[in-house]
Write a structure and sequence with these properties.
This protein is mainly beta and about 210 residues long. It is about 10% helix and about 30% strand. This is Iron-binding protein. InterPro entries: CISD (IPR052950), Divergent_4Fe-4S_mono-cluster (IPR010693), FeS-contain_CDGSH-typ (IPR018967), MitoNEET_CISD (IPR042216). One of its GO terms (molecular function) is metal ion binding. Keywords: 2Fe-2S, Iron, Iron-sulfur, Metal-binding.
Length: about 210
């Protein structure tokens, strides 16, 4: 469910289905995002417009987005990235087009195989005690200087996330792991080559909508 909150200069939207409670909003702009406030918990005019923009850019799940009321377009992300969270999801930031879910700039995508909100993370990795390092070894990268542009994410039925477009896979520390334009990323939680798919989803009978 998505709801919009209109201020004098900016409209802030919140999609509860995507929220993973990272608390970037409350930590960085508590006057705008206040669950204890009288009335709406999001009040755009309680802070500076730039604060709202910064929070939307920081929100890892993409649950919070913004639109300036002067119709200034949202700037494109210059480098598409996927950060591997330790024992957790893939945090994507870029010019994303997730099949059947539209465009966004941030998303946390399930890689434990347990989420009930696939392809998005719902925190099930915590209860499921999913274990997978965020500091994987570097892999061979494509030799390209292209870093931006549209990044298409297609969840394959009963299979991995198939990603096309310029993407940098980064360890949790920010270290570059791989740069490429076509990748299959594990979302069954059992690959022996995480975060990449190695076909294990077939042998374990993994099921997920495409």
């Amino acid at each position: 469910m998505s709801r919009s909150y209109e201020g004098q200069h900016v409209i802030i939207s919140f999609e509860s289905r995507k929220c993973i409670h990272a608390r970037k909003c409350a930590q960085n702009a508590p006057h705008i995002f206040n669950v204890n406030a009288d009335g709406d918990w999001i009040q755009p005019d309680k802070g500076e417009v730039q604060q709202a923009i910064d929070v939307a850019n920081l929100c890892p799940s993409g649950a919070i987005t913004y639109q300036l009321k002067n119709n200034t377009p949202t700037p494109e992300v210059k480098v598409n990235t996927a950060h591997i969270w330790e024992n957790g999801p893939l945090a994507l930031r870029g010019n994303l087009n997730i099949e059947n879910h539209g465009a966004s700039q941030n998303a946390t995508l399930c890689r434990c195989g347990l989420s009930r909100k696939k392809p998005f993370c719902d925190g099930a990795h915590i209860k499921g005690e999913f274990q997978a390092t965020g500091e994987v070894d570097a892999a061979e990268s494509e030799s390209t200087e292209q870093t931006g542009g549209q990044l298409n994410v297609k969840p394959l039925k009963d299979g991995p996330l198939y990603v096309t477009g310029n993407l940098e896979i980064c360890a949790g520390s920010g270290r570059l792991v791989k740069r490429g334009s076509k990748m299959a990323l594990c979302r069954c939680g059992q690959s022996n080559n995480k975060p990449f798919c190695d076909g294990t989803h077939k042998s374990i009978g993994f099921t997920a909508e495409g």
